[in-house]
Write a structure and sequence with these properties.
alpha/beta, Rossmann fold, eight-stranded mixed beta sheet, two-stranded parallel ribbon, 11 helices
Length: 270
Amino acid sequence: MTKKKFIKWLKITAIIYVAGGIALYFLQNAILFHPVRLDRTYNYTFPEPHKDISIPLNAKDTLNLVDFASTDTVTKGVVLYFHGNKRNISWYSKYIPYFTRQGYQVLMIDYPGFGKSTGKLTEKKLYDWALQVYRIAIKRFAADSIIIYGKSMGTGIAAQLSSVRDCKRLILETPYYDFPAVVQHYLPIYPVRLLLNYKLPTYQYLQDVKAPITIFHGTKDRIVTYKNAKRLSKYLKTRDELVTIKGGSHNNLFTYPETISKLDSLLKLP
């Protein structure tokens, strides 16, 4: 290759690299989040007893949540469930019976722009909305009857809330070390930490959580790799636990009996 051709190739490579970085920065919401919006008049048809609640926060922001009732004879607490980065509550409602059959009510919210919730999505707003849901729960239940649960993207939100508010237990399903760590895995050549507006430093929040922590993660997770859980385990206390599901991937942990058995045992604890 001649020097002239090499310089030309280098310029093209640089242009592609810079264009990729610009796209990541300006299109990050479209890349990271995949919501399905619903009309505010949409009626959920969940088989479980539930209430559809919309809370106008200001002229642009409306927080929508679904309150699923316990199907046991006694309601012993509430689970605040923070879901992943795609679709809306409807997609994650299949997990509700695992909690309601054990006597827990479940409050599940949709983030801004997801489902029937409206508003601009920001990291601060994720934390603020999580706190709004906690305030609803604490009016009905004592802190030692509140379990905070996060799945995938929701793990950082759940960890942050647990770091500033008391709860019975924090449960994280397929958590990330922080948001940049997930994106960096796919784009190792970019300075992701400088480009992303979303940090969600789960590792930082875990250090301030006083409640017991349980992490579920599969060894074959290709979306949020198991390495994230291993890195987070360094911040777990003696009574905390990392439950490793051998062969488990990102969205199939509930097909493993050990996941269900362990979750049941946690929900049965007084």
